[in-house]
Amino acid sequence: METIHENRCAEQLVKVFQTSLKEAAKLSITVCPIKKRRPWITTEIFEQVNERRKVKNNIMACQRNACQKAKEILLNNQCQEIEELEKKNPQLMHTKIEEAPRKYKTCSPANVIEASDGAIVMEKEKLLERWKEYICELFEDNRPPEYPVAMREKEKLPILK
Length: 161
Fold this sequence. Notes:
This protein has about 160 residues and is mainly α. It is about 65% helix and about 0% strand. The relative contact order is 0.03. It is extended, with a radius of gyration of 36 Å. The chain is built from five helices and two strands. Strands 1-2 form a two-stranded antiparallel sheet. The chain has helices at about 1-30, 45-90, 90-100, 125-140, 150-155; strands at about 115, 120. The longest helix is centred in the middle third of the chain and has 46 residues, at about 45-90. The protein has two domains: about 40-105; about 105-160, no CATH class.
């Protein structure tokens, strides 16, 4: 009985604290008015534009959710069909797998790369220069020149002299 009474007191204290905090915030924090971008826009027009924006965002969110649900249902149906075909007709199953949409897309050419010093390169001329530098680094051979083993053995053979 005492814990229920203590919980109610604690809840009341939290509510009192929240309301007093909100009132203090209203008094101390000033709200800056939004600057009008165009002088002919009245507050009434501004409110209408904001209301339209809210409705539009809500509609777009609903459409996005509906599309995601429809896509999920389609993919689930395709997966079930593939699982059923696995037992009945494996060849048809493979064709269905090929028809199924993939999550990945083909890669586009790199338009941004990292220079040897770590800087980001985006300009076409610098990109080409960096690729040239990179290829030269890949095929650079700093090993000391040596004779192949076969050449050294030929020099030792007396018949070849």
